[in-house]
Automatic annotation (TrEMBL), chains A, B:
Every Aminoacyl-transfer RNA synthetases class-II family profile domain range: 146-464
Gene source species: Shuttleworthella satelles DSM 14600
One GO-annotated biological process of the protein: asparaginyl-tRNA aminoacylation
Catalytic reaction(s) noted: tRNA(Asn) + L-asparagine + ATP = L-asparaginyl-tRNA(Asn) + AMP + diphosphate + H(+)
NCBIfam families from the UniProt entry: asnS (TIGR00457), PRK03932.1 (NF003037)
UniProt protein name: Asparagine--tRNA ligase
Subunit organization: Homodimer.
Subcellular location: Cytoplasm
Length: 474, 474
């Protein structure tokens, strides 16, 4: 890049990624690399600099000396974090830990750093780094986490696009409450200091931007279904919101979700799709981020690589909720919350099923209708619905889905039973009137997936700018 | 798909896409296709059905007759929009307009439709179809538009990921006003009927979800820059919001934006990136959606294919704002708004430049600082900034970008000059303190791009669920 440098330098300009991946091709050649100083270690008349530009996990070692650099003093006293351009000879060092180094012939400061730079070479806690959302991506753990996040996001697009799914941007602002899924944020242009009221004393939303109350979406599923009934196979991938006052390591108020929806398809088809997708994304990230995954396996979660390989190689198990409850009841003495038919499964139960009973990922299907959403297809038994949760070791639920109720009358009954506002769901009922099809889909919380891929335990550390109750920095 | 069908049928189940792309391989073979009835034309004892499943633009023709189908009466009286499963022999018809048809041996109704189905075979106006956001994707124009949208989105990811850019999810909810770019939506969990106030009579935001006022983002650029200073090359692709009370064919309140940001790079690098990206996406969509583009070229915008090819083959022009103004002033008699140095260029000027003067896309650079944002790099002349707009024929501006001010003191002055709240920009100033680099980036409105790719003139028709002032359906 940088065109002025192009004019001046004859050396080939490279990203660290290109150099690291192909260093053997550059042996004894002159190259130019721009990057940030991770550390400088000075000996008498020569120094070592660890340099990275963020394009690759492994940094480059630069050797520079007073006899080659006129500005040796200036460079050897740069602070950690300084941005520099290094030109020098790539020297292969097969006997050393790092297979090559750059012997600098010229180093130029692009932008210095100050001694108060908060990321010194010592190891910082993740908690401390959370207070530096604008800088923490420059540390090993976050650099690795956010690159895995990027590559995983691409793997998801690639998986669906190669299968001709239509990527559908369902709206963020919505006038329909997707499923009563939880507390919502309201979006408004009204002046909160002086909210207009009508003659009855209610908020006068005719003066708001949309002329009515509007919320931030909790799920794109219902709108996604309208597109699945046109394109057969669609997926969403976008931000969703929950204004829940919960302060856990697994919940954020703003997070990204993937929601595929397939028509002419049933619950079994949705499970096959979910299994194929998870395996694809895991395999893709392991192939494209080997350095990052190795780092997480060494420093964050020792069992990570084994676990990921195990998921890719396993056939996922299948069990009905009813059978799962029967199995779990045998171990009720081991649980804090006792299991019984009709209960919502807790994480401890989910993990027991997948870790102890199945020892691999498992789909649990056909839950009691009382604990599931109104749009799920009622089974013939009249008491369960065609829901599915996918449970994985160490996490529990990672995917939740269902076949959707495709019968107009049954759906209408469920809407009424749940005391929901029928008029809001006219569009959704229409889908059951005009060429209704058996159809199914699921939701995957993207951050849960990234946590699973990295072993990172706190959702705040896989979100570039985490939003949780009381926290909205930048 | 659909597993119960799998058990019963021996015929291979196919998407319409697979069949259309490979019909020669299926000659005289039996296949099963699920889809929706676009039309049925009945003759005596036999009928033609046009069937599509939304996986491909071109539908399939099905022939069925009373002597082969026991349920001929039922099928021949299906309404438009009905969902059916068709099994039959693929018969090649090289002498006909469509190169093959399916001669049905079995047709099963998956879900009927009713006679009041709003999408009858006749042509509907786009305005009317906007009143049916849950159904319009089933019509030719919208099916084509939303598939192009999906494929273009993927092309963007593919372009950046192949160049090792890190996809960065900048936040939707933000406590910083990105650039004073426009009116914003506020997100809150306060009860609007009873907004709490503190002792001074101000809104008591300590009771709001985040403990402070929070808005929907207008741009991810500033947060994106923090990641570019870690990863060197990043891009965002997500929803952004403007609560502007404007009712035009080119503005929506919720839209998707792509914002790449590159470090160790200057304005020239950003222009090279923008040009490569536009050409890549256009070429990718033309290659992967030839049927859709041909449809738009025939029915929406006769010059479309020529124009797109022209962009792919052109070297984009370059001109400074100052020189552009000098050129345009010669034609001031042709403009509604007269051009002078210091004025903001209007669409009529932009189009004149790209259509009449350059006859190809053109980058206009180095605008007066007064008409551009605070973060743009001040040029050495002290009166212009390193800004760039990319103008394309028929549209005008499609991309806006700049090199960013990387000097701490100059940036601080600009923040103060603009009367902005300095304390909010501490994180942004830090980037100029700790290893500052020359860096640049740009923003591409995704809907503008889809309009350009399809010739569709109204932004409401390229957004799956358009949000504009007074409109937020579903």
């Amino acid at each position: 890049m940088f065109s002025k440098m192009k004019e001046r330098k004859m050396a080939e300009k490279l990203d660290v990624r290109t150099l690291q991946r192909n260093y053997e091709d550059y042996g004894e050649k002159e190259v130019t690399v721009g990057g940030w100083v991770r550390s400088i270690r000075n000996s008498k008349n020569f120094s070592f600099m660890v340099l990275n530009d963020g394009s690759f996990f492994t940094p480059v070692q630069v050797v520079f000396s007073a006899d080659k650099l006129a500005n040796y003093e200036e460079i050897s006293h740069q602070n950690v974090g300084a941005a520099v351009w290094v030109t020098g000879l790539v020297t292969l060092t097969p006997e050393m830990k790092q297979p090559f180094e750059i012997q600098a012939t010229e180093i130029e400061v692009e932008g210095p750093s100050t001694p108060d730079y908060p990321l010194q070479k010592k190891r910082h806690t993740l908690e401390y780094l959370r207070t530096l959302p604008h800088l923490r991506a420059r540390t090993n753990t976050f650099e690795a986490a956010f690159r895995v996040r990027s590559v995983a996001a691409y793997a998801i697009h690639k998986f669906f696009q190669e299968r001709d799914f239509v990527y559908t941007h369902t709206p963020i602002l919505t006038s329909s409450d997707a499923e009563g899924a939880g507390e919502m944020f309201q979006a408004t242009t009204l002046d909160l200091k002086d909210v207009p009221v009508d003659e009855k004393g209610n908020v006068d939303f005719t003066q708001d931007f949309y002329g009515k109350p509007v919320n931030l979406t909790v799920s794109g599923q219902l709108q996604g279904e309208t597109f699945a009934q046109a394109f057969k196979k669609i997926y969403t991938f976008g931000p969703t919101f929950r204004a829940e006052n919960s302060n856990t390591t697994r919940h954020a108020a703003e997070f990204w979700m993937i929601e595929p929806e397939i028509a002419f398809a049933d619950l079994e088809d949705a499970m096959e799709l979910a299994e194929a997708m998870l395996k694809y994304v895991i395999a893709y990230v392991m192939e494209h981020c080997p350095e990052e995954i190795a780092f997480f396996n060494s420093f964050v979660d020792k069992g990570l690589i084994d676990r990921l390989n195990h998921v890719v190689r396993s056939d996922f198990g299948r069990i009905s909720y009813t059978d799962a409850v029967a199995e779990l009841e045998k171990h009720n003495d081991e649980f804090e919350y006792k299991v019984f038919w009709g209960c919502d499964l807790q994480t401890e139960h989910e993990r027991y099923l997948t870790e102890k009973i199945f020892k691999r990922p498992v789909f649990v299907t056909d839950y009691p209708k009382e604990i599931k959403a109104f749009y799920m297809k009622l089974n013939e038994d009249g008491r369960t619905v065609a829901a599915v949760d996918c449970l994985v070791p160490e996490i529990g639920e990672i995917i939740g889905g269902s076949q959707r109720e495709d019968d107009y009358d049954k759906l209408l009954s469920r809407i009424r039973e749940n005391g929901m506002d029928e008029s809001t769901y006219g569009y959704y009922l229409d889908l059951r009137k005009y060429g209704s099809t058996r159809h199914a889909g699921f939701g995957l919380g993207f951050e849960r997936l990234v946590m699973y891929l990295t072993g990172i335990a706190n959702i705040r550390d896989v979100l570039p700018f985490p939003r949780t109750v009381g926290n909205c920095e930048l």
